[in-house]
Amino acid sequence: MFNRIRRLRQVAAIASISSLVAGCGVLSSDSSQDKGPIMVGTTAAPSTLDPAASWDSSWELFRNIYQTLLSYPSGATTPEADAAENCRFTDRTNRTFRCQLRDGLKFSDGHALDAKAVKHSIDRIRKINVNGGPAGLLGSLERVQVLNDREVAFQLDKADATFPFVLATPAMSIVDPAEYPADKLREDDEIVGSGPYTLQGYDEGKQSELVKYADYKGYAARKNEAVTIRYYQDSPTMVAALRAKKLDVAFRGLAAKDIVDIQANDKDQLQMIEGSGTEINYLVFNPKDPTAGKAAVRKAIAQVVDRAAIAHKVYKDTVEPLYSMVPKGLTGHTTGFFDDYGDPSVSKARKILTGAGVQAPVPLTLWYTSDRYGSATKAEFEELKTQLEKSRLFRITLKSRPWKTYVTGYQKGEYPVFGRGWFPDFPDADNFIAPFVGDQNALGTPYVTPRITETLLPSSRAQSDRANVVKDFEEAQRILVDDARLLPLWQGRQYVAASAEVSGAERALDPSTIMMMGELSRKTSW
């Protein structure tokens, strides 16, 4: 759920476009050891500590405490070796992918991290098969083979040039077989990983305490000794903590009002780092709901919604209207919803409903999460309610839940219409279509569309050169527009607010906009 009209840098990571601190030559180091851990604030608390259960921003924590075979060093646009020493396709058909692990890898409990641990970690994702969990990312995987202690091979049942990107997602975090059961989720609040940091303390919904892992072997820089991540319910509270120097960095969930206010009033104390991103925000319609399941209702809503008003009134133009599930800046982006619906029109929407025999006003309940995407979410849904009811075609009820119970609700199909944001797993159009379609998807609501899942996605995944997949993705988006089961609303940019004493925030976000905490440090001289 983020970016807008501006051009997306391929690394959807933060580019230091505007820094509001005028500084002299600065040296950065891990002087944070003298002042305690780097304090980071966010509104996106983990929903789970087990990678097999998560397809959400729990990944933020996972990236920093677990390892994956491949990952993204700062500035990288394609996956590079992390726990692996090297990885490659060994055939011309993109169906056999082999990795060799680094020598001497160990989990934080002292157990060896070997090829068997990799196989265990991937296999349990599919075996446990959490509804709405990351098993959907492994649709092309046939089996994992242990070749020896340090080598593992992935046999795919179809060509999949995106598979290295999948292995680089935190969902594919490598876990200790002795600590993580093969057939069920780990239920305590403990973590055994091999990443840059260990989890020294965890208070659910409040904070995570990270300490540098001495035996880590991987690419990640660690310019501090420790990081504490604090979880907030809203942006104003988080920004107040930043201004009070209780935080060094705030990101993920900064409200537009707070962003604009910091830019205008805090130039001497805070820096606001702005950059491109590919996060999107959209509505999901439940096809099993008697009202939302009607195509005419969905299309009438698509015809009424004023995205520009949402972007301006609610988000102060820190986001831009989005007319495709594939955001601007990625190969294959289109403007299908604008092409079909144009500007908002009540008369056209009324005609859609009348033509289908649907009587207005249509009663409908819209759900949103109260604590996931920032405090502006409530205002966004209030604006949606205003727009839809002003048309006299809809009677809207708004309801919300905290993220953890919100997820359970949509996975059970409880909501007629609900809001979601999407932080990309990897920067490719595939990742803005594949996760939302098929019998098993990230939304927990099956979306059977054989043309996409059986033809277009397989065709695109056979292409190593992603410039050759435009036609496949354009057709896939045409199907999404015709069905109107997913309604894109806006695309945003990435913002990180940081103390003037902090360095590294401009390098800290990887291409999927996950923060690599090791890049953060305190400046030692001016």
Describe the protein's architecture and organization.
The protein has helices spanning 32-35, 59-65, 115-128, 163-167, 235-243, 256-265, 295-304, 307-314, 336-341, 346-355, 376-390, 403-411, 450-461, 470-483, and strands spanning 27-29, 38-42, 70-71, 80-81, 84-89, 96-101, 141-148, 151-156, 197-203, 207-212, 226-231, 249-251, 270-275, 280-285, 319-321, 362-369, 394-401, 417-422, 486-492, 494-499, 502-503, 521-525. The chain has 14 helices and 22 strands. The protein folds into 3 domains: 27-43 and 201-275 and 496-525, D-Maltodextrin-Binding Protein, domain 2, CATH 3.40.190; 66-172, Dipeptide-binding Protein, Domain 1 (Dipeptide-binding Protein, domain 1, Alpha-Beta Complex), CATH 3.90.76; 280-492, Dipeptide-binding Protein, domain 3. A 7-stranded mixed β-sheet has the order 9-10-11-2-12-20-13, sandwiched between helices. Strands 15-19-14-18-16-17 form a 6-stranded mixed β-sheet. It is α+β, with helices and mostly antiparallel strands and 526 residues long. It comes from Streptomyces zinciresistens K42. GO terms for molecular function: peptide transmembrane transporter activity. Residues 1-22 form the signal peptide. Its main location: other. It is found in: Cell envelope.
